[in-house]
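Example record

The entry below shows one chain as it appears in the dataset: sequence first, then structure tokens.
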Amino acid sequence: INGISVSRFEFQSRVAMLEQRIQEIKSQLGNFSNQFLAMIGLQDKNPYEIVLQNIVQGKLLESAARKIGINSLSVDYVAKKLADYQFIMKNLSEIIPPFVFNSKNYIDNELLKKYLRRQGISMKEFEYSIEQGLMQNFMLELLQSIGYLPQSSLK
């Protein structure tokens, strides 16, 4: 995709992770799981199609970021986004499941570590996924802001 390769393993592992996450959400949230899955766009959808769409979109955004010279995000931007529960659920729920948050909606490091161990994901792989997800979201925000013209400028 725009010169960025996607391996079969990456695709299959992301599908397996998504299917497992959906099952974990259902077991953790019980009767509320359908509402939550609908809120994050996962209810009644084929995991293969979701992952394919996400990979293509992500790789295109990653390619665009590279082309304009964006290689990293500021520590403040990352910290701000990772402290925002609503942002995470809307934009990073494929990476960070809802059950790793404490009662104040902050990431519980112990729950996160347990989750990553169960998934067979290293902290380095997890951090890389977060970095990619935040970069993709940053690019979406940038593209949306470029396309905005105030009503007053149209007169």
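Notes for this example: Helices lie at 8-29, 33-39, 47-67, 75-82, 85-91, 109-119, 123-146. The mean pLDDT is 85.
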